[in-house]
Each structure stands twice: as C-alpha cells, then as structure tokens.
Write a structure and sequence with these properties.
- By secondary structure, this protein is α+β, with helices and mostly antiparallel strands.
- Strands 6-19-18-17-20-10-13-12 form an eight-stranded mixed sheet. Strands 15, 16, 21, 22, 23 and 24 form a six-stranded mixed sheet that branches.
- The longest helix is centred in the first third of the chain and has 28 residues.
- It starts with 10 loop residues before the first strand and ends with a helix.
- 52% of the residues are buried.
C-alpha cells in the first residue's frame, strides 16, 4: 500500500471555548487515502477546564467499533489516559470531516496515519505552550496522562492549564509530526469496550428506530410488491378518513431503486395506527414491465447461458485451449448461489424535518454523502441545505450504503414543512425492499499435468447485468484466484436481466466467489491426490507480489502462505484422518479487503444434519490490532454470518417479479445453540493495519462445505445446504 502523504496545506486551528476549554479543529488534508479517494480528516478535540478531553468520532457506528477505535488513536497520540476521554458522535459533512462512509473495511487503512496525526498535532501545540511558558526547548519535554512534564526541573502542567496559551500559537507543519512507536502505545493494542455498550445493555435509546422529536408524525410507506411497478389508482380518500390518520401522501420515484419507487405514505401520531391504516390501502399497480422475473426462470436461463458461448471475457492469460488439450486429467463442476437479503435487526428508518427551505435528517446510514446527493436531487435542494445527523446503526452489512429510506423520508417531510416525520419500515418491507446480494452460476474446469500440478483454469460466470456490464456487486475481478496463480486462465461471463436491485453484502463479491472457487479447488486437489492447503501453497509458489488493480495494494503470496501454515498448525490439520466417522475438517483461504484469512472448520454429521463444532481462524491484517476485543468480535461475527448464509436456509426467491420471503422464519439466521467454538489468532506482519469488518467471512463457507465432503464424501455445489444434499 502506498504511504499516506500529508499536503503542505495541512493546518490546525485552535480556539477558546466558554469556560476556558480549548477546541482543536484539526484539518489534515492527505494527498491520497488507502482507497484512492482524496479526503480531509477533521477530528474535534475539546480540552475542558477539569482536564477531561472530549473527542469527536466522525464515522458511523454500525457495530464495527469505529466510534471507539478512531478516538483511541487520537487519544494515544494526544497522550491522555483513556479514563479522561469522553466520545461524542459528529454529524455528517464531508467538507468538514472528510470521508465518513462505513463500508469496504476501509476505515482502518484510510485513517491509521491521519487520525493519529490529529492527536499528535494537538499534543505538539500543548508542548509548545509549556515550553514557551517555562523558557525551555520543547524537545526536552515529555507528556503523559494529559500533562506536559519537564524532566529536568520536575515541573508539570495539565493540558487544561495550557489550553489558552496553546490556542495562541501557530499550528505545526503536519509533516513534522512524529508519531509514537508501537512499543510506546498505551491505548492502541489494548482491549477497550465499546463506548455505547453500557447504554445498549441498559436499553437506552441510541438507534435510529429509537429517535423521536416533539410533534413528530410516524410514516409508513406502501410500494409495489414487484420492484419497478407504478401506481395506477388507489383508495386514498378512504384511508384518509380512517381514525387517527393525519395525512395520506403520494411520493413519486425516478425509476431507480436508490431514489425510491412510487409509493403512498400514511402518517399518524402512532406508528401502529399508520400501519393498520396501510393494510386498508387498495392500490392498483401496473406491473406489466416487471412481473416476468422469477427464480425458476433465472435458473433455466443460466443453465442455457452456461452451455453457450460466453458473452464477454474478463481475463485471458496463456493458451487455455492448448493446456486443456494436453492435460493428463481435467476436473469440471458447476456451482451456484442464491440472492441474499441483508436482514438487519433494525429495519430501515429515517427521521426528517423540512423547514425554511432546508432539511435536517437523522439517519442510521453507512454512506451519508451518497444520501445527501440523492436527497438534493429528489428535493432540488443545494447540498448545503441538507444536514445529516448520525444515529447508531442496528445492523448494516452493506444495506445502509444505499439510502433509499433517506430519500423517502425526505420526500414525505418536504410535503409537510415544519412537521418532523419518522419513516419506519416493517420487517416484511425490510426483507422485500432490499438491495440483494446477486445470485450467480459458475461453470468450472481445471487442467492437471502428470505431476498433479494445475496448469489451467476456466470459469464461465453467469450473473446479472445490463448493457453488457455486471450489476452492482455482481462483478468478478480479473485477478480472482486461481487466475494469476496458474499459467493459463480464462475468466468469462454472461448476463441475465432482473428487476431486483442489487447491493453490497458484507464482503461484497468475496462472500460468494470464495465459496465457489475454494470448494472447486478442493475438488481439484483431491483429483491431484493432495489436500487443499498443499495445492494452495503450490499455487502461491515463491514469495512475489501480484497486482490487484488501481489504488489497491498488491497481493503478497508470502502473507497468504503465512496464514495457511498458521491455521494448519492451529487446527491439528495433519491428524484429520483420525477423526471419528461422520466428522471431517475442511480448509479454505481467501484474500479480500486487504486481509489474508485461512480457516478450518470441523463438522460432525448427526441425524443427517451438519453441526459445526469448531472454526479455526488465522488472519493477517498487518502490524497492529488496534482494539483486540473488537477484532475478535469482528472475526466471530463474520464466521457466524457466513455459516448462517450456508446452513440456516437463507435465500431470496421471486415469483412474478416479487420477493417471496417476508421475515426471519423464511430468511433465517444461525441460532446461539448452533454457534461453534471459534479460535482466532492473528499473524502480525510488517505492513500497515487494515480492516476487519469483512475479510474473515468468505473462507468459512468453502471450509464448511469442504468439511462436509470430508465427513460424508458428498460435494456441496450450491447454497443453501439442505438435508437432501446429504441424503
């Protein structure tokens, strides 16, 4: 990963607060973030008269721990005790705070350097103020626990006592700031509980679903069962006359899922009253353009496409045809996976107040600036007339990167100036109005030589697209392994049409591609007389760097080998052949979101059903685990979510353009009683730290199906896993 470079325009401003505190407004522009996008980081540090420090958390909190982690990094370099720190959530404004999205496991690599520099800059100003007051050189001073100390004279001063003087000093050049060595960390690397955890345990209102305003009306919204349907007529007058109904409004979408399809909103002082009135709505929908889409039709079309010539190539390397023609052995198999919903525990919701030509929004959003742009377009407002406040998010997993619910709430509120409006979806709407992980079908072939080495790989990927391009989250990268690891490789694709909107689900793309590729490679390894770890180590070969595309760090085979060897040792892989009958271990490796993860699953078959006993996880996310307890939570949550996708029966199916599933009974999740023991170890390497929200998920699914094969001899080539597959 390229180093983060500070712009010379970086500056720090400081000002006094009422009561004598000091506000540091630390604007540290960086030339390029880890994801390639220019950002400006603004961290608010308030030093109060009693020497307490309030640190602003700028990113949305979606359970990934950013609200705690980012202030930890500031506090570390500011050199205060964690007990002195109070954390406050900022509002959303990219012009002030820089990037605030929560997705792609990008927060850690993007913020690792500039967030720490924010704390270091404030510390430098306080040290300079003390040096000036004592008539000594700042280089000889030290800091600890919110104090500046002169070791020579024994003098010390609290940050609070220095705040006024520090505010009058010129800011330091950010390029001169010296950050702490890891050996000197006192907060980073220590397990710190989530800042909101006590309030969550106490049941205090934190989430968007909890938020209220005086005089607020609740809104429910009815939209077409089939995505893309439009309103022909509705009994609006009848519903308006129902007891407790305050307003019945029509909103008009622009034909895109993000900006909301046509709908009718019902408002009341009680959500229950509004939702009961919604059940009395009778809408005549025009679904002529979208009712032809169905799961059965997709499967039939995909089967035909997979057998036909592919529509386009993703990548071609070497002479694939010649390699297959000269192969001693070939392996072929078809794999598939379904559409999936995000299934957030907290249904989509948003509160909005339109007043005096401006709108204020309270939203549990992962991507606030995207929402600002959509609302600005929908209401024909300049972006500066839109204020977005963060609510804590009760589950995102990528769903709240799309902001259709924000546009809907804003569109309703704009029709009722001065009245706060809270839009809240039902669980059924949340599952049936999602941006789904797209389904996919893969036709694989592999070629082996006389020594059992893999010489060629071919994948015909059938997925969903439009105008010759894959839909969002349906992409497959040209470097998808084993492409790039074998001399001859062909990845190609064909497309189906759908009316379902697609979106990023935790570990986008990787959550599906890891399953099909690593499960198929387990078949290839067996055909070569090897196990999958051995095959992967052979494919990785000598240490080398493989390019991963613009603004992405290269794939380092040595790091991949490190986690493979680690998990093999952790799991007792060598003794797997001595397991009891009906028990097996499966392995998988995957690289995604800059994280290297290898996992082993042990599964036992009881009464024809698989029971996961233990999952071993080895991960390499660089040189530093910022908050160890949260890191473990992220890994464990990823593993359980992946197992849910495979074992619990999750899939989204369609009939006549509409989604059939309506609640957690038909799109279920793993129960606590089915959660396995999870053993996690991190392999630390000398690279900048990267994110943990996603990369631990992809390998667990192929490791599971490979374990089932080891236990039963049966190959699982489609998801979800059903009892019939093991019969």
């Amino acid at each position: 990963m390229s180093a983060t470079v500070l712009s010379r325009r970086g500056f720090i401003s400081a000002s006094l607060l009422a009561g004598g505190g000091l506000l540091f407004d630390l604007n540290l522009p960086i030339a390029q973030a880890a994801d390639g996008a220019p950002v400006i980081l603004t961290a608010f540090i308030r030093i109060l008269p009693d020497n307490r420090v309030i640190i602003g958390a700028k990113n949305a909190e979606v359970g990934q721990g950013a609200k705690t982690m980012l202030p930890m990094m500031i506090a570390e370099e500011l050199d205060v005790d964690w007990s002195q720190v109070t954390i406050e959530q900022t509002h959303a404004d990219a012009k002030i705070f820089g990037g605030q999205s929560a997705g792609g496991s990008r927060t850690t690599p993007r913020e690792w350097v500039p967030t720490r520099q924010a704390g270091a800059a404030a510390r430098a100003m306080l040290v300079a103020a003390a040096a000036q007051g004592w008539g000594v050189a700042p280089e000889g001073l030290k800091t600890a626990s919110g104090k500046v100390i002169d070791p020579t004279s024994g003098k010390s001063a609290t940050y609070a006592s220095l705040a006024a003087a520090a505010a009058k000093l010129p800011p330091p050049d950010p390029s001169t700031l010296k950050l702490k060595n890891a050996a000197d960390f006192r907060i980073i690397g220590r397990s710190v509980g989530g800042v909101d955890t006590p309030a969550i345990v106490a049941g205090k209102p934190l989430y968007g679903i909890d938020f209220t305003l005086p005089g607020m009306l609740y809104a429910v919204l009815e939209t077409c069962p089939a995505f893309g349907g439009t309103i022909k007529s509705a009994n609006i007058d009848v519903v308006k006359a129902l007891p407790g109904v305050a307003h019945v409004l029509t909103i008009k979408g622009d034909g895109t899922a993000e900006s909301g399809h046509d709908g009718i909103a019902i408002l009341s002082k009680s959500w229950w009253t509004a939702n009961q009135a919604r059940e009395k709505l009778a809408i005549d929908w025009d679904m002529s353009a979208v009712s032809g889409f169905s799961t059965d039709a997709y499967a039939a079309q995909a089967a035909g496409k997979r057998k036909a010539k592919a529509e386009s190539e993703i990548v071609r390397a070497g002479d694939v045809d010649a390699a297959f023609a000269s192969a001693v052995k070939t392996v072929a198999a078809d794999y598939s996976y379904p559409f999936l919903a995000h299934g957030n525990l907290e249904p989509q919701n948003c509160t909005a107040l339109f007043k005096d030509g401006a709108i204020e929004i309270w939203a549990p959003t992962q991507n606030p600036e995207n929402g600002r742009g959509l609302v600005a377009k929908a209401l024909n407002l300049p972006p500066e007339k839109i204020r977005i406040n963060f609510n804590r998010i009760g589950g995102g997993f990528g769903r709240r990167l799309m902001n259709d619910y924000m546009v809907q709430a804003a569109s309703i509120a704009a029709q009722l100036p001065g009245v706060p409006v809270k839009l809240l979806w039902t669980r059924q709407q949340d599952i049936q109005r999602d941006f789904y992980r797209p389904a996919g079908w893969h036709g694989f072939r592999a070629a082996l030589d006389k020594d059992g080495r893999m010489t060629a790989f071919h994948d015909h990927f059938v997925t969903f697209g439009k105008d010759g391009k894959p839909l969002r989250a349906a992409e497959m990268p040209a470097h998808e392994p084993p492409a790039g690891l074998v001399p001859n490789a062909l990845l190609e694709q064909s497309f189906l049409a759908t009316n379902l909107p697609t979106g990023w689900l935790r570990a986008p793309g990787s959550n599906a591609l890891a399953f099909v590729t690593q499960a198929f490679l387990d078949e290839v390894a067996a055909a070569a007389g090897k196990d999958l770890p051995t095959l992967m180590l052979e494919l990785l070969g000598d240490p080398k760097e493989l390019p991963r595309g613009t603004n992405q760090p290269p794939f380092l085979t040595a790091r991949a080998k490190g986690v493979i060897e680690k998990v093999v040792a952790m799991s007792g892989w060598a003794s797997r052949t001595s397991l009891p009958r009906g028990t097996g271990k499966g392995f998988a490796f995957y690289y995604s979101h800059m994280g290297y993860f290898a996992e082993v699953v042990e599964v036992a078959i009881a009464d024809g059903a698989p029971k996961v006993k233990t999952v071993w996880v080895a991960g390499d996310v660089g040189s530093q685990i910022i908050n160890p307890i949260n890191a473990l939570h992220q890994v464990e949550g990823s593993v359980i979510e992946g197992l849910s996708q495979a074992l619990a029966g999750q899939q989204i199916t369609q009939v006549a353009g509409a989604v059939e599933q309506a609640n957690f009974d038909t799109h279920p999740y793993l129960r606590i009683s089915d959660a396995p023991k999870i053993v996690t170890e991190f392999v630390k390497t000398d690279y900048p730290p990267t994110g943990l929200g996603e990369p631990a998920l992809p390998p667990v699914i192929p490791a599971l199906v490979n374990a089932i094969h080891a236990a039963t001899g049966k190959r699982i080539r489609s998801l979800p896993i059903t009892p019939e597959m093991l019969a």
